[in-house]
Design a protein that fits this description.
9-stranded mixed sheet, 13 strands, 299 residues, homodimer, globular, 4-stranded mixed sheet, alpha/beta, 10 helices
């Protein structure tokens, strides 16, 4: 089955202690779409400007990502610049130029309204609502977010939480949203806001799924060297949704394994700048790390 | 088989945002010994003063901890006071009164020199050496430590690392010791200092074992409420060594499961002040959480 993904489609200029790269293909939807593409057909909803390099369109197409929902508007592509500190855990936004995103209204091709799996990747909650408004009873909807929206669009985000099956956020965002320091109590509070499935990302410490059937702790693949963690969270949720869309049987049954596949794609993402390593991934490379994770937690 | 445990035997005065308790039974050896006692016979090496409450001696004995290596000296028992911040992750030492520890020289009963499993729980590296000097070819030796010894007794600690099979330390200590931010590279560096098995404790994020046969990620039992984390690390390594001493077959084969049992005892430790919940533990309660951890990581 297909996954519809809406989110940011951007150019990223990224500085790490070791190197600097400018105008890489980035954005939550780009990372999530490429990650999902290893498992299922992907439909991408987003917007870019006239300056968007053609080679990036080719790169989407190479991954069989359907671009019928990608608008190319007059103006500049959304551009984000950021810098990582030595430990690669803290990052600082240097500049954000919204460009064509300022006037973006997502419009879905009619044939896409029945897409069973919907990923509302990180983007303004208003746009996430707007996409959901155009869908006809999707089977499974997951939303991602970031601290910015907790700060400037909390009412819209809270409204969104009542409309989604799953919600993905990182540890500090979970604390910010719930004013609860304990992760497990925080997850309980988030369930009460709507989502049946709450996934808290903990970076190098893995991720935790909370659902009616209890907790699942997904390990992170141990990386001796992180080159650029930008897009790791988006790759995680993209891989997860791609796996779910391709898997047989009920979502509940497949969700744990979907998180493992998401973690694996995210681990590869961290090993190169932007989408550098993710786009070179093979099914065999993914399966190899899935088996390594099985071995990592076996006791 | 038996486990010999040396470490601090102390009175702890602990303040948390919720409560305050003074002169509880504490110290690395007390926590580790009680934790190990659920699995194997324990031999305790330590020192207390004349002020040491008799009920604490009874408590050790209730757990069948052999006290032939516990010296009772003129003077005061080692007393530690500390305070936890709201999130229970950061703690501040308010006062340390060494008391009889200042003149402590561990002396092992002759019959103990052949004990197969030796836990050098957190204490000055000089004392850890002193115990090891008295042992005759123990089967498996594990050392724990703390940041204090990295700061004031590094040469002795480094010498110790060449004499032990396993070394347990927490994440920030691993970074401090190796000047390496990445945990997996840090573990590799620590192997080069001597220990075949390196276990890095990550608190609520679990623990990681690094050995010749690769990595193992042990989850932490998810606790909705932490009452007092004092002694959790000591309980972890105590439970681990107790399990190893009781298990059949080679240590290498049993180490992963030993970490799981250690994690479980540590989780109970955090749910009460001092040794309050640990001393009330039953085998059934331990097995219940081991099964819960199995379910937690299953995919």
């Amino acid at each position: 089955m297909s996954v519809l993904i809406v989110g940011s489609t951007a150019l990223d200029s990224i500085k790490t202690p070791a190197a600097e790269n400018s105008r890489l293909l980035g954005g939550s939807a780009s990372h999530a779409a490429v990650a999902a593409s290893f498992f299922a057909p992907v439909r991408l909803v987003g917007v870019v400007g006239e300056d968007f390099p053609r080679r990036y369109l080719s790169l989407y197409r190479k991954h069989h990502i359907d671009l019928a929902g990608l608008q190319i508007l007059r103006g500049k592509t959304f551009h984000w610049s950021g810098e990582y500190e030595v430990n690669m855990n803290n990052r600082r936004t240097l500049r954000t130029e919204l460009g064509v995103f300022e006037s973006f209204t997502p419009r879905l091709p009619a044939a896409w309204r029945n897409t069973p799996f919907v990923l509302l990747a990180n983007i303004a909650p208003g746009l996430q609502h707007h996409v959901l408004d155009q869908m006809r009873r999707p089977r499974f909807v997951v939303a991602d977010t970031m601290d910015l929206w907790l700060n400037i669009a909390l009412p819209e985000l809270l409204k969104l939480l009542r409309r989604v099956d799953g919600f993905v956020l990182n540890e500090s965002e979970a604390r910010q949203l719930t004013h609860e320091d304990n992760l497990f109590r925080a997850a309980k509070k988030i369930h009460r806001l709507g989502p049946k499935y709450v996934i808290v990302k903990k970076g190098e410490h893995g991720a935790v799924l909370s659902s009616g059937s209890g907790l699942f702790v997904s390990p992170a693949f141990p990386l001796p060297r992180v080159v650029d963690p930008t897009g790791a969270g988006d790759s995680f949720v993209g891989g997860l949704m791609g796996y779910l869309a391709a898997a047989q049987g009920p979502v509940e049954k497949n969700l744990r394994r979907a998180m493992i596949y998401g973690s694996v794609v995210a681990s590869y993402c961290c090993e190169g700048f932007g989408l550098e390593t993710t786009t070179r991934l093979t099914g065999a490379a993914i399966e190899r790390r899935v088996r390594a994770l099985e071995e990592l937690v076996r006791f």
